[in-house]
């Protein structure tokens, strides 16, 4: 969902960035936090279920790839090679 949809549903709110007036910050509302508190354990349980049958060496390789993704995303994928 886009921020505006989440904002319209009352799950997030936008507020001024005191460090940079050109940008806005987005944060969870009380209702958004309640929803996150409900969904995160369900997501974690599903993730555990999906990974439960992978052998340790495959889990380690998967973890390595996941740790590299933010770096690749941040530089447009240039360092992923």
UniProtKB/TrEMBL annotation:
Signal sequence, renumbered to the chain: none
Gene3D superfamilies recorded: Winged helix-like DNA-binding domain superfamily/Winged helix DNA-binding domain (1.10.10.10)
Gene Ontology molecular function: DNA-binding transcription factor activity
Q: Which SUPFAM superfamilies match?
A: Winged helix' DNA-binding domain (SSF46785)
HTH marR-type domain: from which residue to which, for each copy?
1-71
Q: What is this protein called?
A: HTH marR-type domain-containing protein
**Organism for this UniProt entry:** Agromyces bauzanensis
């Amino acid at each position: 969902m886009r921020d505006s949809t989440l904002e319209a549903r009352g799950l997030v709110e936008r507020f001024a960035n005191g460090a940079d007036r050109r940008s806005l910050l987005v944060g969870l509302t009380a209702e958004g936090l309640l929803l996150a508190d409900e969904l995160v354990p369900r997501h974690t349980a599903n993730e555990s279920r999906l990974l439960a049958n992978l052998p340790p060496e495959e889990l380690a390789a998967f973890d390595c790839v996941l740790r590299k993704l933010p770096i690749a995303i941040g530089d447009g994928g240039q360092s992923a090679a």
